[in-house]
Amino acid sequence: LPQASPALRPCTPGLMNCHQVQRALRALTIPLERLHIMKGHMMQAMRRGLGRYTHSQATVKMLPTYICATPDGTEKGDFLVVELCQSQVRTLLVTLFGDGNLSPQMMYKTFDMPEDIMRGEGEALFDFIAQCVSQFLADSSSSLEHLPMGFVFPFSCRQTQLNKAELISWSKGFSCRDVEGKDVVQLLQSAINKRELSHVEVVALMNDTVGTMMTCSTEGRPCEVALVAGEQWAPRVPGWWVLGGLSRCSPPLLPADKGSNCCFMAEAHLVETTEETSGRMCINTEWGRFGDDGILNDILTPYDECVDEESSSPGEKRFEKMVGSLYLGEITRHVLIALAAEKALFAGSSVDVLKEKGVLKTHQVLEIINVEEGIAVTKSTLEALGLEPNERDCSRVQQICRAVVSRAATLYATGLAAVLSYMCQTRDMDQLLVNVGVDGELYQGHTRFEEILQSVIKLLAPECVATLLPSTDGSGRGAAMVTAVAVRLEAQRREVAELLAPLRLNHDDLVQVQALMRQEMELGLGQETHASASVRMLPTYVCHTPDGTEQGEFLALDLGGTNFRVLVVHVREEGIHMASEIYVIPTAIMQGTGEALFDHIIDCIVDFQKKQDLMTHTLPLGFTFSFPCQQVGLDKALLLTWTKGFSASGCVGEDVVQLLREAAERKHHAGLKVVALVNDTVGTMMSCGYEDPKCEIGLIVGTGTNACYMEEMRNVGTVEGDEGRMCINMEWGAFGDNGCLDHIFTSFDRVVDEQTINPGKQRFEKLISGMYLGEIVRHILLAMADKELLFHGNPSPKLYTKDIFKTKFLSTIELNGLALRQIRQILQDLELNASFEDSVLMREVCHTVSMRAAQLCAAGLAAVVEKMRENRGLDQLSVTVGVDGTLYKLHPNFSHCLQRTLRDLAPNCTVTFMPSEDGSGKGAALVAAVACRITGPGQ
Ligand code: ADP
Ligand code: MG
């Protein structure tokens, strides 16, 4: 028990022997295990409050505020706030200097609101507010420049944007007609415009708890949690007050209309009640109703039950009634009544005065406990009520007040611990370091409250280190901060949008790319035109896709991907089985002589055959060779150019199959029968075609990008014959090398291109494939840092290193949940000092780049499928694309975006995508197998 309420002081011996008092104190003390359970329940209630389907029944409402960032100290300018309080309108002008928000200048004016307005026409209410604004601005002689305004509107609203909120229902004495169900921001803006104040723009509407959080952000570390414990104090006396800098003249303070609450920055994708998925959003927990489902029943005391019965909402707001400053006096009053009835207090004198609701105020309870030797205060407080306490009564009452307040503090702390643990968990962190803004009369000036908060958090959420910061200047300044942040974000958003606009392709752009691709395809196929086409449309001499009857045992080579591999492939009725071995090709060999390269390949084959015990077999061999080749036959292919870091001499213009055969002869390897040379796109199509006969397209999106498809022989001007079909290796990576895509290249694309080993070449590929996307992103990030949109204008020196930003980072960053430790790892590896907002923006950049890649890929494919459909004279084509490549397979959005765009661009084609499993290896064997099937075994 002593652990449970750390600040509950040990009883003095005189008190110990009063068992009634002891019992009361015990009832008000919650054991630590029970607090642990309660914290778990609170977390569960929070999750329910955020869940799409559980939200409506949740006790903890978790209201989204649409506030998606905290101040970073660069906020600057004049901001107006208008706040609707109980029966007043507060206006406030805050000037920020972009100096870390250290010393904002503030001017207040408060107006009393006539009663009839609170219950009159809605229009009259908003006209009145506009009139207050107008008068305030006239008096403060502010300029007529654009003035952003925040609107503090503490009523239950259905908010859908920062500046859009429908009033659900009035409360707190308000009942203006024709407002419920309407957007109150719009109503206020119209009223303001009527007064010719159209330079005043309502940019943010907020409830009243978020201000505290917004005022506590310090330069280094943002404040991401706020706790309001009881009423906040705010200047509410009608008249003028100027607060500025250090020489602050404080206005008289009166309690504002604030309850007990907590808000924090939640991961936006967990807030299922909004569309927002990126970044964070401030959530107003509205935790006062926690326990309304009975979950707190076992800790409710008889005193709590009395308070509840006497309240205007019996059975509701159970948590609020244990912690709220409206209720602490009441709880104490009922303890005193009960103890007096048991003769443990005020023996002999009448306590009837205590029967009146509200006679003991929470601030009196706080006064009683706040004074070290507060017996005198206790005595005078009780006497003022008309009681006749003796010395012992006074110390017992003091003890009881402490217990009531300690319990409230412990419950606040438990709720806060739940919030902190939830943040730590959902941000995937081992330890959460966070600033917590605290306000409210329970906190202000009560070290005991702070001690309890600190020690309970340590016990219940040991993984969180919370620094408590007192909020200054109340909610008005916070509202100005919300407004200022909204304005900063909006300006930033505009600049970002401008910078990214050239990368964003609309439907018409894509239709045009599709048409250009189609045009280049025709050129590439034409006998006369093909030499000048950027899309080379190379014949492959593969004229049949598998029909599933293929059988046999084959060798396969895969050269040109990330690895060089040798495989043995068994094609049987039951399916395909393979064994393979990866071999390294040293750079010296890649860039040495052709003879050395092919000798090395033969060595690897021999090694493999020995390992697989295949030396005595002569197996047909399929060779996946992923470089552009002018194919003359299935087993005759002239290398057009090396790519991907290969440059072995004496190969370009030669027949690659012949080079392999000559090497075999040099090495006296007689048992080698090269049947076919295939591109990796063709291999991919063939391996998927074995499973699905409708697979007549192959697509690669890995290091590079390319596609192949089955074209009608009559359209292939570069090969004799009109019968049947042939697979065409498009080599579409070079699309645009003739300048036809220049209009879609951005400055970033041009820089990336210039820094490659083949500038001006493979221009389409450089917009799409894994080798380049990271580079494009890197250049955009540098441009953004240059405009001070990112990293406070200071990117790490590392970010200037070519290829340091890997394309796989895009995959990680674009996944939901930016707080994932992998993302922190990336930022750390790049030595980037990125704020959370920076990482949200980085995500947008990555998304823009990968989406464009997927859309362009879709435009290319749309040209292909539409051509196939027309070739075959079909209204509707149903076709399968075999796909390979790590970018396609591992990126979280690429494939989805590709398919969606393709449906949009080629609505008459039903295209199924089939990821290939080891297309290069299996595919080469299948090409060999099909060749053997067509020509007959033994050939
Ligand atoms: P290749 O195209 O050389 O046969 P892959 O299909 O495996 O090989 O593609 C490798 C490329 O995929 C790498 O260059 C890299 O850019 C990209 N990549 C690797 N991992 C990922 C990932 N997780 N997400 C997106 N792209 C990736
Ligand atoms: Mg590959």
Automatic annotation (TrEMBL):
BP GO annotations: glucose metabolic process; glycolytic process; intracellular glucose homeostasis
Catalytic activity: a D-hexose + ATP = a D-hexose 6-phosphate + ADP + H(+); D-glucose + ATP = D-glucose 6-phosphate + ADP + H(+)
A single GO molecular function term of this UniProt record: mannokinase activity
Domain Hexokinase C-terminal: 258-485, 696-930
GO CC terms: cytosol; mitochondrion
Residue span, Hexokinase N-terminal domain: 21-217, 496-690
Enzyme class at the top of the EC tree: transferase
Pfam families registered for this protein in UniProt: Hexokinase_1, Hexokinase_2
Record pathway: Carbohydrate degradation; glycolysis; D-glyceraldehyde 3-phosphate and glycerone phosphate from D-glucose: step 1/4; Carbohydrate metabolism; hexose metabolism
EC number of this enzyme: 2.7.1.1
InterPro entries the record matches: ATPase_NBD, Hexokinase, Hexokinase_BS, Hexokinase_C, Hexokinase_N
Keywords associated with the record: ATP-binding, Glycolysis, Kinase, Nucleotide-binding, Transferase
Family: Belongs to the hexokinase family.
Protein name: hexokinase
Organism: Pachyramphus minor
Gene expressing this chain: Hk2_1
